[in-house]
Amino acid sequence: MEVMRSKNFNIYTNDELDAMDKDTLQEEIDDLKDYRIREKEYLSRVRDLEELLLIVMNMITLGENSEFEFCDSLDPFSEGIIFSVMPPKKCWNNISDGEKTLGSLALIFTLHHFKPNLYVLDEIDASIVVNIIKERTKFIVINLCDKCLD
Prior knowledge:
- By secondary structure, the protein is of the alpha+beta class.
- The protein has 4 helices and 4 strands.
- The longest helix has about 40 residues.
- The N terminus is likely disordered.
């Protein structure tokens, strides 16, 4: 699978376009069309994921809210996505570790709906999720503590 590249397309002057051969120009146009198609599909999947995540969050937490925000809204492929969780009647900076864990679990369960074959988890989330999701899935567990592996 080809890696989606950023919107760093070349900008040409009229003289450069006139001097460009037809095949090169067609290649640039095709690259731009490809990018637009991938971008549209990606944004659609992110919206689907966000809608399903709200449903899962409400089932698990009875009212907790969540949202996705692109780090770079002009180029969604370049920076990534920020996932935010907000329990009812709380401010953003006062979320407990348990509420963060529930948000992480909701995200993992939502992603599982789309049947990925790879999860990257920290040791806490892995200890909870690996026993629940077992079917044809690979896990990468990130661990910074040797004692946690025992």
